[in-house]
Amino acid sequence: MSTQGGQADATPAVRYARLIASLWPLLRNTPLLQRRAAYQAGMFGAFSLFWTAAPLLLASPAYGFGQQGIALFALVGAAGAFAAPVVGRLADRGFTRGLTAAGLTLGALSFALGLLAEPGGALGLIALVVAALVLDAMVAVTLITGQRGIYSLGDAIRSRLNGLFMSLFFMGGALGSALGGWAWAHGGWMRVCWVGGLFPCAALVVFMLFDRPGAPAQTQATR
Length: 223
Prior knowledge:
CATH class: Mainly Alpha
Oligomer: single chain
Order of helices and strands: HHHHHHHH
């Protein structure tokens, strides 16, 4: 009984170990996942960097916001997420690639707009709000189109694909958060915008090089 019980108890662990071991081959053999994780890592890195540094700008003498003012700004910026239903409908109509290109491009341009926020004042605040709205909306665009793409690869591997996708782009977010504080400390808001803009620009370069019509989604070994 004890032997049988030990074997029964070990079976889930063995299965879990095999599941974890299958993640690297899945990532290696799924170019679509690689591309989509790169795009979203760039966008989420930009997002995390922006929202790490924006409260520091708002609390600076240029604006002098307190905690309530910063919280209200964050609430306004979150309105960009309302783009998600529209993006989903457009993606279902086959505009995934165009939406991705637009998301990465506008994500980079949001930091160019953010440069206008440095002097402070009403114009600067308006520029910062618009930059936040655009960036948040474009992060939603690339997330939805990315998930739609990897979910289409099959039910049997969907959970593992999603786990890899989330893990990889959260690494980009962690890097963005770290660089946001560094950029603010070593160059203020100007450096924040330049460093932040590099994230979606790098993702856009990957898109232009590798995401062409007919690009493979997965290799035969994954199917």
